[in-house]
Please model this.
Amino acid sequence: MTHQEKGREGSCVADNPVVLAVTDYVPLAAQVRYEALVDDLHQLFKAEHGFLSVDTVRYNQSHQMEYTVLSRWVDEAAAKKWRDNPRIKTVLRQIEDITGGAADMVVSSGFGLWFDHPQGGASVRTEPNLPPFWKRVVLSVIGVYPMLILLLELIGPHIGSLPRLLQDFILVVVLSALLTWPVMPWLSRLLKPWLMAK
Model:
């Protein structure tokens, strides 16, 4: 299912936005400095043509922080063009001084975001290596159906008095959030041997 994204002015700008997933590994001592620089970077993104939104997922490890930044753009061209901005390049150099090199970076759209990507070193930019279509459909059903049944049982009684369209909207928002993180990434890692089998 595709949906239209709204731009900053409220006009429809993309039916299938591109997601740029960037992963950084940051020493705990540099966490505050890194997050300040990433905030600066995100402010610069907002001025870029084709920018839609950005979210950061943090994973605290014993010796470092792992950050996955998901920025959304109207198309692949927009997801690459921002790298030409000199101010953004300056901030990226400062970030790379902290992380020790270029980040893992993958451009994905549609189902591509759910799946792990080939490891080619921190400086490699690669397109997603997707499983066959039918396996992606099976994975989606495995992720969506149990979560939908669970949400209907847990949330249904609390929202049953609301209009049907509002009930559906609430379920879709909660389900989408849970699928984005952690359900689909976890399932894709768990089933990776089957998904990627030739």
